Amino acid sequence: MNKSLLTNLLAFVAFSAGMIADDDTLLTIGLFALSGALTNWLAVHMLFEKVPGLYGSGVIPARFEDFKRGIKSLMMEQFFTEENIERFLSAENGRQPDLHLAPVIEKVDFSPTFDSLIEVIQNSSFGGMLAMVGGTEVLEPLREPFVDKMKSSIEDMTRDEKFVTMLRDELESPDVMAEMRVKVEVIVQQRLDELTPQLVKEIVQTMIREHLGWLVVWGGVFGGVIGLIASMLGI
Questions:
Q1: Within the chain, how many helices (H) and strands (E) appear?
Q2: Which of 14, 77, 151, 188 lies most in the core, judged by the most C-beta atoms within 10 Å?
Q3: What is the Cα–Cα distance from 142 to 115, expressed in whole angstroms?
Q4: The model's pTM
């Protein structure tokens, strides 16, 4: 059972029992506990839902744009700072980073590169000699070995320390860094634009409603304690 509902039920039971048994102490404890639990439950409810006639209720949906701006500010000022981007691009623990480009290179079609090579040969002084031995068809058996060698060579190049250093230096240059942050900011803004007030409310509810339920529990507990003290003092 929901802890907020359980707390309110227990407080109501204590209040009802005090009335039925004509027990002033139990009645006061139940009344104070019920008032504390109900007040805190209403406060939690008002965070997420608009209650007619109660100014300030539904604050999370009402301040939807402020939440979006806050999320964007957090992302750009805390996560995607120039220092964090540089740290991401730098080698980890002094080791040379692996760009992991092998899967990408494997998917690239290098056949047009081989076709360009054949075209260059045809237009060179070797073109006539190539025609005498059967034309470009005699080079076709070389296509697959050429493509495999190109992929292997490019992959080796991307793992070369000098290449990675040059690439990192280029990415870390002020102009590129600024452009990268602008692109990241655009992506973040696009994702935030997809949010709706209802979705933001559900996200926040999921994160904190369970913990806010304890406000109701402690409201009932402290209300009951105050009721006990008030009863003992004869107030």
A1: 12, 0
A2: 14
A3: 11
A4: 0.47
